[in-house]
Amino acid sequence: MDKKDAEVDALRKAKNAQAAAGKSSGMSGRDLFQYNPEWFQDEDDWDLSKYRQQKEDDDLEVESERIRLLSIKDGGP
What we know:
- This protein is mainly alpha-helical.
- Helix content is 68%, strand content 0%.
- The protein is built from three helices and no strands.
- It has helices at residues 2-20, 29-35, 48-73.
């Protein structure tokens, strides 16, 4: 068991060193979670209705600009 524990410990240290160097590719989700669980915490204020309203506002702005440009192209004001 000591040999297996040593191998697991060496692998963990290697992955931690790799993550510390900014190279997280090759790490599983579990490895990433174990390395830094804070990356996977949900924000308390996440609200889909805010996203939807922002998306509608953005779409309306884009559509208004498109219509304005069409009216200019057609000789409007």
